[in-house]
Design brief:
The protein is mainly beta. It contains 2 helices and 24 strands. The protein is globular and about 55 Å long.
Amino acid sequence: MSTTFETRYASSPEAVSKYGTTALRDEFLIDNLMEAGKVVWVYTHYDRYMAGSAVPTSALKLETIDPLKSDTFLARRELGIINVGGNGSVTVDGEKHELGYKDALYIGQGAKDVVFESNDAANPAKFYLNSAPAHHAFPTKKVTLAEASKLDLGTPETANARTVNQMLIGGVVDTCQLQMGMTELKSGSVWNTMPAHVHDRRMEVYFYIEVPEGQSVCHFMGQPQETRHIWMQNEEAVISPPWSIHSGAGTSNYTFIWGMAGENLDYGDMDVAAINDLK
């Protein structure tokens, strides 16, 4: 079978505050993505969000999985895709969409036949996938990195100069609740999402890419007054509950893809934690 999945249940902040390193990693780290020839999913009970990947060395079909209890994957869901590998394509109900490096694609509820392909199996596409429950069928739309809404944030002096590329988000694409984008840190900057924040009205997943060989990112999570950290490598993701900060510092600059879902689509809806108040 070319599709595998696992389920992660929601945890309270009180429980997580007592976790050791292994328990924390088992609960929140996703370290099995980008398996060649497979579609891999993690189904979370935070807003029923799903994070996964598809690496087609030959054509791969988007298949439903048991937790969805549906005949097709997108019967009651929407899907966001960002390619972080070689050139490839995603065919949606017979319509082919070519995706180069860092191109994104939104697929709305109700699409039945979705097929992932690589232009060159020796340099396969690496499709990073996020999915959330949907209530309306919005049209499929491709968004290139150049077409993203861009925010330049931070400064070199605070080591957090970065460009936030809002790709699958209101104003660029119509979605039900799924939002995705990509943040690229400038050379010499290592901090992301600092000052840190929480947004109790939605959860989030971070997927770290372009982490140079031999380097790592230390991802910070937890309530602002009770933080924890997870050391992460290239092409690994981490689940961020609504009650948790989501911030990181690398041993070099890097890029990460953020995806989120919940009841509020306002990107600016966040409760900022002052840097000196973090514990």
